TrEMBL record:
PROSITE patterns, A to Z: HTH_MARR_2
Molecular-function annotations in GO: DNA binding; DNA-binding transcription factor activity
UniProt domain HTH marR-type: residue ranges: 8-139
Keyword Ligase: no
Keywords assigned: DNA-binding, Transcription, Transcription regulation
PANTHER family according to UniProt: TRANSCRIPTIONAL REGULATOR SLYA (PTHR33164:SF64), TRANSCRIPTIONAL REGULATOR, MARR FAMILY (PTHR33164)
Highest taxon of source: Bacteria
Name the UniProt record assigns to this protein: MarR family transcriptional regulator
GO biological process: one example: response to stress
Keyword DNA-binding: yes
Length: 139
């Protein structure tokens, strides 16, 4: 490790790499458990809070519009989402998660997500310090 003071961007890049690269086993397990691709699970997650247009959903899920349309079409065929006319603007359609969609999303989110070996290997003092720092920066 360097003795130089790291920039917030350097620390953030390291933190996101550690988390993103260690989540692959969880993603695979969630896909296996639900039979849905991870992009479909991501779409359902974004719809938990409120209905969205396909354009809003594409932005929220970091997907392009054509891929989002394909995902919504498949999820609609499976009964996990519905499209309805927006009551405030009849030219738009809103995508809403259904009860079945919430159930399959709950199944995905209930997939065990154990800490990676690198975190398990940390001593208790380091875990406590890391937890306390993360709690301070959590939004």
């Amino acid at each position: 490790m360097s003795d130089e003071n790291p920039t917030p961007d350097e620390v953030w890049a390291l933190l996101t790499r550690v988390v993103l690269y260690s989540r692959d086993p969880w993603r695979r397990a969630a896909v296996e458990r639900t039979g849905l691709s991870f992009s479909r699970i991501r779409v359902l997650r974004r719809l938990r809070a409120e209905p969205m247009t396909v354009k809003e959903l594409a932005y929220a899920a970091a997907m392009d519009a054509p891929a989002t349309t394909v995902a919504v079409n498949q999820l609609e065929e499976l009964g996990y989402v519905v499209r309805e006319v927006d009551p405030t603007n009849r030219r738009k359609k809103l995508v809403t998660i259904t009860a079945a969609g919430r159930a399959v999303l709950a199944k995905a989110l209930a997939t065990p997500d154990p800490a990676p070996d690198s975190v398990n290997a940390l001593p208790a003092d380091d875990l406590r310090t890391l937890r306390d720092i993360l709690n301070r920066i959590e939004h």
